[in-house]
Amino acid sequence: MKYSMNWDLDSLFPGGINSAKLATKLTQIKTAIATLGDLLDRWDAASDAPDYQQFIKLITHLQKIEAGIGQAGLFMTAIGSADVNNPEVAPMVAKLDGLENEIETVSGKLKKVLVQVPDAHFNAILAVPELKPLAFNLKEMRDAGKELLDDKTEALISRLNLDGRSAWSAHYDSLVATVTMPFHDADGNPTTLSAGQADNNLLGNADPQYRADLLPVWEQAWTAKEQLFADTLNHLAGFRLTEYAAHGTTDFLKKPLKDNRMRAETLTTIWQVVDDNKQFLLDYLDRKAALLGKKHAGWQDVEAPLNLPGAQHHHFTYDEAAAFIIKHYGEFSPKMAALAQHAFEHNWIEAEDRAGKAPGGWMESAPETNESRIFMTFTGSPNDVSTLAHELGHAFHSSVMNDLPYFRQGYAMNVAETASTFGELIVADANVKAAANDAEKIALINAKMDNPLAMFLNIRARFLFESRFYQLRQQKLVTPAELNELMLNAQKEAFGHDLSTYSPHLWASKLHFYIADPSFYNFPYVFGYLFSLGIYAKAQQEGNFEDQYIALLRDTANMSTEELAQKHLGVDLTKPDFWLAGVQLIKRDVAEFMRLTDSLVK
Ligand SMILES: [Zn+2]
Q1: How far is the CA of 391 from the centre of ligand 1 (A)?
Q2: Cα of 51 from ligand 1 centre, angstroms
Q3: d(CA 108, CA 141)
C-alpha cells in the first residue's frame, strides 16, 4: 500500500494525550493570557499613537494564543475521535475549555475597550500597515463590543452559562445515552438498539420493511421520555432568550445571522428559492417510492440506499480512492490536486475501519504548523470516496489561507461548507460517470441526492420548526404535545404533504437543536451547499476558474457574505438568480435519474 490509513499526530505533539510538549503548551497559553490581560489593562490609544506599537503587540499575542488553543484542540479532538474509550481525553479537554473561557473574557474586554476608542484613533489604527489586513475583523470586534453589558454582568452571565445553556446541552447527551429500543436484527433475532444504532438503521438500512417496522419503535422510544427532552429544550432555549433580552433584543435570528456574516434578506431569498423549486424533488421521491414498490415514500425512505438488481458497487482500495480524488480534483484545479496529494503523503488522514472510532467525519486545521487533519472511516464504497473528497475540500480551504493572519482565517459556518461541498461534487460526479452499468448509476445518483433532499426538505423542516418553537417559547413553556405538532406541521409543509409517514419526535432525536452554541444549526448548511453549487456551475461554464476560486476562499473571513459574492462572483445574494443556477445542477441529476428509471416502473 502506497498511503497509510493512519494519521501522524506525533508531529503535532509527540507522545499521545500525555505528551510533555502538550502540557508545556497549555502552561504557555495560560501565562500568555495573563500577560495579554495586563497589556490590555495598561493600553491607552492616545499614548500609543501614532504608530500603535502596543496595540499591534496586543493583537499579535491574542492571535497567537487563539492559534495555540486551536492546535491543542485539534490534537485532543483527534485522539478522542480515534479512540472514544480513552478516559484521559475528557480531563484535558476540560482544561483547554477553561483556557478558552479565560481568553474569551479577555477578548470580550478588548471588544469593549475598542468601543471606548474615539473614531479618529480607531480609524488611524485601521490604517497602520500591520493592522490594515485586519480592518474588517477589528471593526467586527468593535461592533460586537457595542452589544456587551458591563464587565461584571458579562462575567456573571458567562459563569451562569456553565450551569445554564451549556449544562442543558450536556444534559441532552446524558438523556440520549439512556434511550434504547428493543428490536430485532436482520435475521429476526431480538436485540436492543442504542439511539445512534437505531438512527443509522432507520435512515440507512437497505431493507424497506426493516425501516418501516423500526419507525414506530423509534417514535415510541422518544415518546417515553418526551417530557424530559421537552424540559431540556425549553430551558436551553429559555436561557438563550433571556440572554438575548438582557442584550436588548427579542430577535432570535439576529445572532445566528451575525455569526454567519449574512443578511436576513439573503436567508429569505434562499428559502424562497427552495420553496419554489422543491416539486422536482418531491417527484424524485415519488419515483423512488415506486422503485421500492410504494405509492409514497415514508420518512424512513428519504435517505435510504437504492440497491436495484445488478447494482454491483465498485470497491475502491484506499490507494485507488486517493488516485481517483487527485485525478478528478486536478481537472478543476491543479492546486487542489496537489494539496490532496500532500495530505495523503504526509499522513494527515485517519481512515482505518476499526472498532472504537467515533462515527462521522471531520477536518480541523493545525494553525501553528499550517497543516490539517482529517478523520473518517473508509470502507471502500464510492460514498466514502466522496466523503474523503469533502474533507479534503475543507483542508484545501484552510491551506489557501495559511499565510493570512489568524483572524483572517476565521471563516463562518455557512462559507465553511463551500470548499468541502465543491470537492465532494467533483468526485461524486466523477463516480457517477465511472459507473459500470445503469443500476450502479441509479444507486450513485440516489446517494448524491441525499444532500439536496436534506437541504431543501429536511433542514427546511428543521428551520421552520425551530423558528416557530422560539416564537412560542418567548410566551410560554412549550409542551411535548405542542412540540410534536409543531414538528409534524413543519415536516408536512417542507415535504409538500407528500410522505406516507413522518417523525414528529425529531425535535427530541436531533442533536442539532441542543447545541449550546450556535443555535439554528441548520440554515448555514443550506447556504453552504447552494453557494457551492452556484460556484460549481460557474466553474463548469467558465473553465480556468482556479485563481478566482482561491481568491474567493481567501476572502471568506474578510467581508460579509454578500460582499464576498459581489466581489468574487459579481452576483447579488439577495436576488434569486445565482441560487437558481445551482438548482439547475440538481435538476439535471434528477432528470438523468428519471430517464434511467423510466422503464423500471409501470
Ligand atoms: Zn463539512
Answers
A1: 6
A2: 41
A3: 9
